[in-house]
């Protein structure tokens, strides 16, 4: 802990704004929020500010601006890139949005919910379900991740193919700008050409341009019937061909399309008890597909159409094996395989993990060629990938050589070079070094190294204009001058 | 003309960059581009710069920045708000993108076209059609409007309900920033969380933050079979109920849904030769609907399903009459009624026209109540509206009292007060004073009057950061300090 009674921090004025519940200076209460959930980033902070209203957020930001006190907005603290942990110098205060957890309104008729920043994703899922609707974005951290954080990081997940990222689900936004003014844009206008799109600027800005306090979110009809398929293929190119075939046949009803390298599945089967492959034929690559049959006039007929599309695909010679889950329990067991990959890969041993995107049609080559090239360049490593092929986004893992006992030492020794290798290949394919996790602290130097001068210039110009004193989420996202 | 040989303009250096074809100083050749297509905004400029490549645009912008020469980017000069005509002081040069008119690539397989800024919309339509695809955005000025202008104004049209505005169709962007750097973002990445979204910032920025030079655009399957319906209703509330019914039944295959006030249709029937109402029952409001049956397994069956949905609607008591076009010629005659409204309204007499949006569910009340209130407040006027109800966007007209001979004098006398009245009602409904036309010169003062301090602060901060010398499309979009 740095000095909690530092005279630089106007505790009395903060107390007057926030009240006793909204100002936390007890070191034990602060400690859990100083480290990210994967335990890779650690910071220091003398206080957590926990406003209960947008007005309180505005007052805190205005005061912080006046006193040049850095603020680190924080929701569930589930960032994958250290985006919500405070800097090590202990100067910044954590601005927790968790007390702003009201669902201000939810309308099934208008398919819409207005949520405050601190609403936890699974809470919104439950509220939408109770109204016969759903919020079609989910991810592993749904029990902790908050709406404000999901907006600020433009979160993704396995339903992006059909429903888009958070950006596509936010119909309106309320935020406190760094000058303490409230941007009131919650009205869900489908068309609005009043100049620069402030909403899109704040989505994905990782709290560096202001604090998201509430969002108007799009809901969609509940899933009342689904069909879940598992297909084995020789190459990811065949998986993409399958996706295109299914899109032609089933259009917008493809709810999920995940591709999994054979060795990733192998690790799940080795490390996760009670798992088995849905298909008997050993396959270098696997595909998990979910179809929404809720709107189908006849669900059984819908399943028949899926089966005949899969048969056609197998007969074309591009597929090795395919099966359709016979019931809900089996469908869940298919999804469990996908959802256990991260855990299984951790059990398998140390690895570097990349969250990258390239144009969809370039992805099969990227997956195959970059894995081959990485293995050749870093002998003993194995590389493979899994994820959202239809979005052009996969999670690409480079695993330490077998028998590497000290993972952190291996990462310290090889991490930078392997990262550069993988990212250079992304850059060569016209892709992004952060598809869905953001930049945070972790990827800032790589962004500085790889981003074009135009992109860096624009980002720095905006940051400087909005936040010249650098108080909004310092040391995140924007590369240092020395980094690009 | 201001002085074309002004020593302040480095003609020789411009000539060196652009060559003889790219530098136009002949007053007669410049004249047509000094006035907007509706003849309401006039400016002066000593030269048109017409680069042929992105590199030339970058060199021109860098030179203009160095010399503090204002530039007015111009495509087809079809702005509805004076967004592409130069200021009156004659200091700005027109930067015409019309020579950059290559479709760099078009892929039917990937449903994508990369177009330079000067490609004319109808040219893209034809190219897409030749490849068995279509670009699903169209508007009256399609024979002149260019891709760069459509991107820079986030253009709309009658297909937004299904396909979104230009913002939703731009998958990648190339632009020259005010510092002369080229932002290279043409890769169509579905997921990219590398910080601030520069693409979304430039879309709709009306050339005030840089010059769009090319865009990657999404194509969709060709329409091979459509069905076109006309329905009469008592109130716009019934039209919205019809839309919701049809959405439940036909989902994403509703290609267009336009609502038309009875008096607007009356003016079409009075002024446009050869037109007649599709339905016999006199109706206060009309609805034109287009369905895409291209994907339907059986087109005739698709029409039957539409007919039974319309019957159901009529039987529910919310509809007065309905008909389905019997053939393509009849469908075209239905659309001709919609597309002739602007012409008919002009023939009818002077009017003030507003392009406004509110949340969809608030639109029926807005249409009815604001018309009533405007007529009461400005005796002798008539007010009504037509347009894109499903997008929450209509064109709202307030017509001069019958017998008003001098339209411009009436507008000079009453325009400001009526505009404020209509816009105040938009603001009260949480709406936008510019749904699809942008701000340009025309709405700048009203934006300054009505925009929140937060919105104005953010827009001015971005503009100042990107373009501190104010050379990019001066006197457009950003309200003056005296205006808010």
UniProtKB/TrEMBL annotation, chains A, B:
<dbReference type="InterPro" id="IPR004113">
    <property type="entry name" value="FAD-bd_oxidored_4_C"/>
</dbReference>
<protein>
    <submittedName>
        <fullName>FAD/FMN-containing dehydrogenase</fullName>
    </submittedName>
</protein>
<keyword id="KW-0274">FAD</keyword>
<dbReference type="GO" id="GO:0022904">
    <property type="term" value="P:respiratory electron transport chain"/>
</dbReference>
<dbReference type="InterPro" id="IPR036318">
    <property type="entry name" value="FAD-bd_PCMH-like_sf"/>
</dbReference>
<dbReference type="InterPro" id="IPR051264">
    <property type="entry name" value="FAD-oxidored/transferase_4"/>
</dbReference>
<dbReference type="InterPro" id="IPR016164">
    <property type="entry name" value="FAD-linked_Oxase-like_C"/>
</dbReference>
<dbReference type="InterPro" id="IPR016169">
    <property type="entry name" value="FAD-bd_PCMH_sub2"/>
</dbReference>
<comment type="similarity">
    <text>Belongs to the FAD-binding oxidoreductase/transferase type 4 family.</text>
</comment>
<dbReference type="InterPro" id="IPR016166">
    <property type="entry name" value="FAD-bd_PCMH"/>
</dbReference>
<dbReference type="InterPro" id="IPR016171">
    <property type="entry name" value="Vanillyl_alc_oxidase_C-sub2"/>
</dbReference>
<dbReference type="Pfam" id="PF01565">
    <property type="entry name" value="FAD_binding_4"/>
</dbReference>
<dbReference type="InterPro" id="IPR016167">
    <property type="entry name" value="FAD-bd_PCMH_sub1"/>
</dbReference>
<feature type="domain" description="FAD-binding PCMH-type">
    <location>
        <begin position="41"/>
        <end position="222"/>
    </location>
</feature>
<dbReference type="GO" id="GO:0003824">
    <property type="term" value="F:catalytic activity"/>
</dbReference>
<keyword id="KW-0285">Flavoprotein</keyword>
<dbReference type="InterPro" id="IPR006094">
    <property type="entry name" value="Oxid_FAD_bind_N"/>
</dbReference>
<dbReference type="GO" id="GO:0071949">
    <property type="term" value="F:FAD binding"/>
</dbReference>
<dbReference type="Pfam" id="PF02913">
    <property type="entry name" value="FAD-oxidase_C"/>
</dbReference>
């Amino acid at each position: 802990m740095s000095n909690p009674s530092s005279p630089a921090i106007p505790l009395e004025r903060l107390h007057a704004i926030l009240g006793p519940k909204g100002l936390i200076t007890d070191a034990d209460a602060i400690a859990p929020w100083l480290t990210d959930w994967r335990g890779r980033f650690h910071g220091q902070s003398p206080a957590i500010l926990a406003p209960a209203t947008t007005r309180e957020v505005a007052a805190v930001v205005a005061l912080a601006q006046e006193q040049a006190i850095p603020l680190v907005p924080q929701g569930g603290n589930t960032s994958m890139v250290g985006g919500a942990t405070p800097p090590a110098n202990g100067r910044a205060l954590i601005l927790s949005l968790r007390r702003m957890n009201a669902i201000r309104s939810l309308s099934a008729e208008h398919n819409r919910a207005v949520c405050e920043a601190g609403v936890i994703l699974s809470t919104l899922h439950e509220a939408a379900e109770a109204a016969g609707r759903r919020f079609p974005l989910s991810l592993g951290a749904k029990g902790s991740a908050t709406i404000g954080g999901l907006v600020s990081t433009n979160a993704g997940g396995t339903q992006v193919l059909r429903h888009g990222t958070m950006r596509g689900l936010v119909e309106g936004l309320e935020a406190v700008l760094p000058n303490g003014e409230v941007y009131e844009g919650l009205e869900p206008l489908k068309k609005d050409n009043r100049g620069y799109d402030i909403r899109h600027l704040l989505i994905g800005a990782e709290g560096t341009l202001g604090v998201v306090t509430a969002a108007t979110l799009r809901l969609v009809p509940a899933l009342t019937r689904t069909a879940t398929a598992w297909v084995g293929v020789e190459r990811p190119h065949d998986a993409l061909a399958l996706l295109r075939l299914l899109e032609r046949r089933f259009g917008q009803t493809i709810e999920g399309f995940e591709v999994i390298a054979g060795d990733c599945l192998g690790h799940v089967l080795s490390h996760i008890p009670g798992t088995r492959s849905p298909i008997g034929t050993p396959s270098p690559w696997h595909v998990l597909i979910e179809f929404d049959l809720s709107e189908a006039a006849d669900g059984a007929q819908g399943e028949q159409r899926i089966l005949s599309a899969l048969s056609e695909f197998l007969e074309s010679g591009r597929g090795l094996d395919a099966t359709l889950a016979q019931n809900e329990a089996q469908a869940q067991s298919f999804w469990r395989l996908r959802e256990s990959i991260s855990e299984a890969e951790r059990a398998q041993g140390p690895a570097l993990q990349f969250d990258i995107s390239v144009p969809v049609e370039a992805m099969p080559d990227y997956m195959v060629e970059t894995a081959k090239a990485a293995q050749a360049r870093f002998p003993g490593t194995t590389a493979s990938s899994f994820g959202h092929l239809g979005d052009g986004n996969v999670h690409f893992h480079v695993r330490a050589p077998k028998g590497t006992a000290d993972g952190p030492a291996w990462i310290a020794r090889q991490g930078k070079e392997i990262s550069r290798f993988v990212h250079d290949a992304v850059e060569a394919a016209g892709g992004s070094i952060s598809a869905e996790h953001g930049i945070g602290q972790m990827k800032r130097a790589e962004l500085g190294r790889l981003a074009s001068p135009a992109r860096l210039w624009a980002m720095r110009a905006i940051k400087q204009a909005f936040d010249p004193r650098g108080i909004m989420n310092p040391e995140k996202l924007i590369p240092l001058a020395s980094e690009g």
